[in-house]
Amino acid sequence: MACLFTLGGGPPAAARADSRPDPAEVRAGAECPVGEPSEGAALRPGAEGLTHAVEPREPGPDEIARMSADLRRRLEESGGMRRAPATGEIMVPLWVHVIKDGVLGLSDAGVKRQVDTLNAAYGGRLGGVDTGVRFVLTGITHTLNKDWFRDPLGNEAAIKTKLRVGGPETLNLYIAQLGELVLGYATYPYWYQGEPQLDGVVIDWRSVPGGPLRNFDKGFTAVHEIGHWLGLLHTFENGCSAPGDAVDDTPPEAYPTTGCPPSKDTCTEPGQDPVHNFMDYAQDRCMTNFTAGQAVRMRQMWDLYRRPTAPPV
């Protein structure tokens, strides 16, 4: 694991898409000397009301239809073998880009807690199945830029152009402070070919395990958004109408879950709403699992879109 330091204008070439850290600028395995966020850190008015209800890059129905059609085409062209992808671990290289304003931001200890949570969630240790997906922390960058910290969406192109590392298989996780009603957002595998420079996941630093964001402080915002990066749709996609989220073992759901209800059943089709699924919108204390069908879908997406040797379109 490497740690890089940058100011405003971005990191050295080490953090660009096709490069590796310069040994002179890397402290391998070292702890970056940044402050740990206080449990009592002040929040903006209304910040405790943040939810998953707004995801800036969420695809609309037409885009989802195109994504689904492309997946079907690729599955057919693979001779059907991709419908039952090989088991075994998928090792995802992970670069975490921490953006700070000089006062607020995330420490390396917070990053490591988040990575541990990712591996616990995707490994089935919190409930549900072991998806076989593992995240390998390859490097951390720290960037001091108040504008980027306060408006990562508005500065997305500049941030990702400067910081992004690797190809389609490398997860770049950007951590800053998002606006009202936004916890995080992600790109989908299908989009990589058209906009590789924008690929990645953005989350609010306050949502990591132990962060100061009430009800969303267990690190499951990143789990949810990375699910999108691996090709999963929301469990409530298309409401009660087929094809739903295109995963057979997540019952249809008319609308997103809020809070943490013991159960709910909003569609006439069999099965109660998957209120504990990481791809719903419940509070963190309610989220526990991925399903076997979601694990298969993530493997299909990895094989067809993100694996370094993925077949050409």
Automatic annotation (TrEMBL):
<keyword id="KW-0378">Hydrolase</keyword>
<keyword id="KW-0482">Metalloprotease</keyword>
<feature type="domain" description="Peptidase M43 pregnancy-associated plasma-A">
    <location>
        <begin position="218"/>
        <end position="301"/>
    </location>
</feature>
<dbReference type="InterPro" id="IPR024079">
    <property type="entry name" value="MetalloPept_cat_dom_sf"/>
</dbReference>
<keyword id="KW-0479">Metal-binding</keyword>
<dbReference type="Pfam" id="PF05572">
    <property type="entry name" value="Peptidase_M43"/>
</dbReference>
<protein>
    <submittedName>
        <fullName>Zinc metalloprotease</fullName>
    </submittedName>
</protein>
<dbReference type="GO" id="GO:0006508">
    <property type="term" value="P:proteolysis"/>
</dbReference>
<keyword id="KW-1015">Disulfide bond</keyword>
<feature type="compositionally biased region" description="Basic and acidic residues">
    <location>
        <begin position="54"/>
        <end position="63"/>
    </location>
</feature>
<keyword id="KW-0732">Signal</keyword>
<dbReference type="GO" id="GO:0008237">
    <property type="term" value="F:metallopeptidase activity"/>
</dbReference>
<keyword id="KW-0645">Protease</keyword>
<keyword id="KW-0862">Zinc</keyword>
<comment type="similarity">
    <text>Belongs to the peptidase M43B family.</text>
</comment>
<dbReference type="GO" id="GO:0046872">
    <property type="term" value="F:metal ion binding"/>
</dbReference>
<feature type="region of interest" description="Disordered">
    <location>
        <begin position="1"/>
        <end position="63"/>
    </location>
</feature>
<dbReference type="InterPro" id="IPR008754">
    <property type="entry name" value="Peptidase_M43"/>
</dbReference>
